[in-house]
Amino acid sequence: MDTVHAYGVSTTRYLQTHYRDTQSWFLFVSMVADLRNTFFVFFPVCFHLRKSVGIKQVWVAVVGDWLNLIFKWILFGERPYWWVQETPYYGNSSAPQIGQFPMTCETSPGSPSGHAMSAAGVYYAMISSLLTILKELGGHIKNWVFIAAHFPHQVVAGVVTGILVAETFDRVYWIYRASLRRYVYTTLSLLSFAVGLYLVLRGLWVDLLWTLDKAQRWCQRPQWVHIDTTPFASLLRNTGTLLGLGLGL
């Protein structure tokens, strides 16, 4: 994997050097693709225009991000901004210097990219629903490579997985008529499985919070370390959102 990671660092360095004028665009797209904007901006708009689209959007976002958490705990993916500081890959030669930004210092494992996965799933669900609505009437995926939050292969993996999740929910119809009991059971199942996996791996002496120390050590500015990006923070946010949707409906 060191070769793959080194290629990713070189790609990041190239983008940051040759496309410096587009820095604000990269930062803007990364901010728009954040999952919190799905819940606070996209969902209310979509739900107002068509209830079923808003419901599917939340299910895709929550289940997709939950799967991302499970994958991250299993795959143990590095992130560029700390890997380049610790790897012996470059030997005696100096390691490439890559820039950091306020959104760089995520604290969870890097593979697959959660933001690319969530953005791909949510946008795919919205666009596919929009096309369906247009037919009834007769009628961009962000990249976190530039800001060194992910390696390119992690972004690709996130995009592909996110689209698969969205495609799956295009064929799941019971979510539109799910009862409160179903929402409660689903929320408890997702939460219990994740916590159970965490406890099992901890019992096997696997430290699932290994990335938090790396983020605090290698982030250039302490205020850029986003504690709300830790796995349990995202888990509680997502399961709480799903339960909230059930209560609201």
Task: Give a short summary of the structure.
The protein has 249 residues and is mainly α. Helix content is 67%, strand content 0%.
Key traits:
single chain, mainly alpha, 67% helix
Notes on the structure:
This protein has helices spanning 2-18, 23-32, 35-49, 51-75, 80-86, 114-136, 152-169, 180-203, 210-218, 231-248. With 249 residues, it is mainly alpha-helical.
SSE diagram, text form:
Blueprint: H1 2-18, H2 23-32, H3 35-49, H4 51-75, H5 80-86, H6 114-136, H7 152-169, H8 180-203, H9 210-218, H10 231-248
Low-confidence stretches: none
Mean pLDDT: 87
**Quaternary structure:** single chain
- Tally of separate helices: 10
Characterize the biggest β-sheet: none
What general outline do the C-alpha atoms trace?
globular
The domain count comes to 1
